[in-house]
């Protein structure tokens, strides 16, 4: 298909078998988060096979960045849709998501077992200790280019939105989602382009709150929907949302188990949104993990399948751009702010030392996230085997 959703001419298209094989390969080796996923998809679709031109691929990145939800997942689904239509999107999206999902559910069973081995508990406590540094690193990497894109008086509002997100993530927990939406509407109103259509599009997620209040699978589905549909600015914005619900409101996990979940989401291939499967496992076993994953990834498929042929108009919409110019920086602030509750969840002195070393490695020495988390986990396992104290 062309950049506008028309069938490609004069260029060979892959069949569904090829899409399944290649997108599954990306899903298996896609360690390192969105930057790695984008690089792998570009190498596959542009450089190696020429299925998409460089311009088409850049348009795909720009378009999916306008959408809430996990951007690299939507990019993978979008590229597969360009090549194979709806069947291609379904097959490619599943290939990208399922390998990491299977791995993270297996690891959740190991780390959330009633009595895991001591070294496993230590590895989880060590990797979990580094998670706050990973969140800070992710947020700061987004702050710099975001600040560079705005100028003049816009910087004052941009900074205000960042601060709202930062403070909210550190303090209000589950209500963060409403403040992200509020920042979007404030910017929309500031530019005097608000309209009822935007209100209808972006307020619908608030409706299921009554269902979520009943707990059980309804609550799990609502948490997963927030994770999949409202993660403006990158996967890490979901962390404070999940922590407030999974730990504080519903008690599905302890703080230590949640830190393990975030670490597992970072060291496994595929999107950070896979973390919701660990929350689902803690809430309701394998069935809960599969339900949470299905609900969290459904918006990404829906946005592409229902709107991909309208993306040119979406990118040109001043109202959509204004909303995201408010919600986007608030989400970046939330990513930075999520480091506060993550650090507060630590209980042992040696975990704070691991956190400090992880911060130095990520922020000053520019080490990779996966390497940092694996190293922190190894330190925790050694401390556990030496008889050191572990979080309860």
Q: What does this 3D model show about the protein?
A:
The protein has helices at residues 16-29, 34-48, 54-65, 71-111, 118-129, 131-149, 154-171, 176-190, 196-203, 209-212, 216-229, 238-249, 255-267, 275-307, 311-316, 318-337, 339-344, 349-364, 369-385. The chain has 392 residues and is an all-alpha fold. Helix 8 runs antiparallel to helix 16 and helix 11 (216-229) packs antiparallel against helix 12. The longest helix has 41 residues, at 71-111. The protein starts with 15 loop residues before the first helix and ends in a 7-residue tail after the last helix.
Which helices and strands, and how do they pair?
Elements: H1 16-29, H2 34-48, H3 54-65, H4 71-111, H5 118-129, H6 131-149, H7 154-171, H8 176-190, H9 196-203, H10 209-212, H11 216-229, H12 238-249, H13 255-267, H14 275-307, H15 311-316, H16 318-337, H17 339-344, H18 349-364, H19 369-385
- Measured distance between first and last alpha carbons: 54 Å
Helical fraction: over 70%
Number of domains: 2
Strand residues, percent:
under 5%
Largest sheet: number of strands, sense, barrel closure:
none
Mean pLDDT: 83
Order of helices and strands: HHHHHHHHHHHHHHHHHHH
Number of strands: 0
Q: Runs with pLDDT <50, length 5+?
A: 1-10, 193-212
Q: What structural category arises from helix and sheet content?
A: mainly alpha
- Overall geometry comes to globular
Give the helix tally.
Answer: 19
- Rounded to an integer in angstroms, the radius of gyration calculated over CA atoms is 20 Å
């Amino acid at each position: 298909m062309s950049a506008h959703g028309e069938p490609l001419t004069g260029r060979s298209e892959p069949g569904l078998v090829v899409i399944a094989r290649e997108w599954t390969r990306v899903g298996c080796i896609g360690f390192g988060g969105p930057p790695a996923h984008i690089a792998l998809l570009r190498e596959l679709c542009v450089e190696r096979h020429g299925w998409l031109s460089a311009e088409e691929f850049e348009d795909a990145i720009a378009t999916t960045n306008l959408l809430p939800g996990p951007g690299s997942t939507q990019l993978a689904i979008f590229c597969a849709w360009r090549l194979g239509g709806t069947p291609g999107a379904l097959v490619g999206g599943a290939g990208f998501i399922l390998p990491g999902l299977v791995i993270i559910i297996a690891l959740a069973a190991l780390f959330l077992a009633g009595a895991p081995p001591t070294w496993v508990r230590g590895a989880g406590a060590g990797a979990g200790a580094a998670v706050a540094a990973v969140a800070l690193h992710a947020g700061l990497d987004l702050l710099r280019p975001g600040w560079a894109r705005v100028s003049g008086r816009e910087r004052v509002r941009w900074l205000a939105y960042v601060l709202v997100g930062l403070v909210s993530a550190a303090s209000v927990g589950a209500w963060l989602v409403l403040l992200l939406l509020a920042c979007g509407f404030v910017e929309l109103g500031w530019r005097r382009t608000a309209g009822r259509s935007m209100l209808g599009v972006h307020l619908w997620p608030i409706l299921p709150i009554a269902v979520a209040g009943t707990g059980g699978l309804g609550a799990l589905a609502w948490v997963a929907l927030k994770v999949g549909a409202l993660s403006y600015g990158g996967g890490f914005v979901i962390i404070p949302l999940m922590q407030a619900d999974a730990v504080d409101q519903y008690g599905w996990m302890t703080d230590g188990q949640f830190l393990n979940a975030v670490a597992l989401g970072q060291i496994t291939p595929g999107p950070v949104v896979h973390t919701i499967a660990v929350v689902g496992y803690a809430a309701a076993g394998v069935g809960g993990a599969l339900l949470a994953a299905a609900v969290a990834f459904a918006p990404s498929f829906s946005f592409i399948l229902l709107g991909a042929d309208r993306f040119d108009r979406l990118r040109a919409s001043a109202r959509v751009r204004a909303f995201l110019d408010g919600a986007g920086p608030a989400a970046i602030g939330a990513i930075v702010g999520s480091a506060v509750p993550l650090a507060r969840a630590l209980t042992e002195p040696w975990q704070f030392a691991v956190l400090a070393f992880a911060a130095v490695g990520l922020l000053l020495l520019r080490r990779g996230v996966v390497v940092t988390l694996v190293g922190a986990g190894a330190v925790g396992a050694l401390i556990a085997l030496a008889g050191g104290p572990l979080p309860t």
